[in-house]
Amino acid sequence: MIKLYGMTLSAHTRKIQTALLDLGLSYELVVVDLTKGDQHNPEYVKLNPGAKTPTLVDGDLVVIESNAILTYLADTYGKGKLIAESGADRWQTIQWLTWNGSEGHGPLSRPWYVKILYPLMGMPLDHAALEKSHADAQVPLKLLDRVLSCQNYFGGSSYSVADIAMAESVFLTQWGGVDTSIYPNVTRWFLDVTSRDSYKATRFPPH
Ligand SMILES: N[C@@H](CCC(=O)N[C@@H](CS)C(=O)NCC(=O)O)C(=O)O
Where are the domains of the chain? Predict the structure, then answer.
């Protein structure tokens, strides 16, 4: 049985849960409660040396980094679903997953940190930082909108793990108060991805 270490409150864990549902895979969620600092438990750090969630354990294999986990699951269990087995669509998927991790998720998620998470942690709302985070998020959003003017999905012609990763980043941008409706292609694509049962099932987390 696949074990997923994380918690549904974490965007990076939700991505994995969405993919597991899309692939029809059953799994055990081992809750790593970030609000209690469980990620620093020595047993967990043996699995994930960076003390972050999520971590996937499949038999003897341990995979960390959410976008690597997405690739592993799609490659191992998808048979062409969620990532093409070869060709341009496969490399579009890998390219945008990589961009998401290295360039996109940071500025797209920042408004959520400033507006939602830090105040929840007891810090006063920093209006200047929020304004800056909203301005900074426009750069990746413009890029996403341009890409989606030429293709339906980040995996090219069909829905893939790149869309799962990117939708979670855009979700955090919106939750952080950024109006993404001014980007028509992002709006069309986001509606497509978020109306799927797998996405909806991971929104209101039990853990
Ligand atoms: N690049 C990592 C990022 C993982 C990450 O930042 N996870 C957050 C939860 S969404 C976490 O574990 N934070 C705990 C901490 O920073 O102490 C991935 O994609 O898996």
Answer: 2-77, 88-201
DSSP bridge pairs for 6: 31
Report pTM.
0.96
Residue 40 CA: nearest ligand 1 atom is 17
CA of 52, closest atom in ligand 1: 12
Written out in words, the top-level CATH class of the domain with range 88-201 is mainly alpha
How far apart are alpha carbons 23 and 10 in whole angstroms? 20
Compute the half-sphere exposure of residue 38: CA atoms within 13 Å on the CB side of its CA.
13
Q: Whose CA is nearest to atom 13 of ligand 1?
A: 52
Q: What is the pLDDT of residues 28-86, one digit of tens each?
A: 999 999 999 999 999 999 999 999 999 999 999 999 999 999 999 999 999 999 999 99
Q: How far apart are CA 103 and CA 161, in angstroms?
A: 17
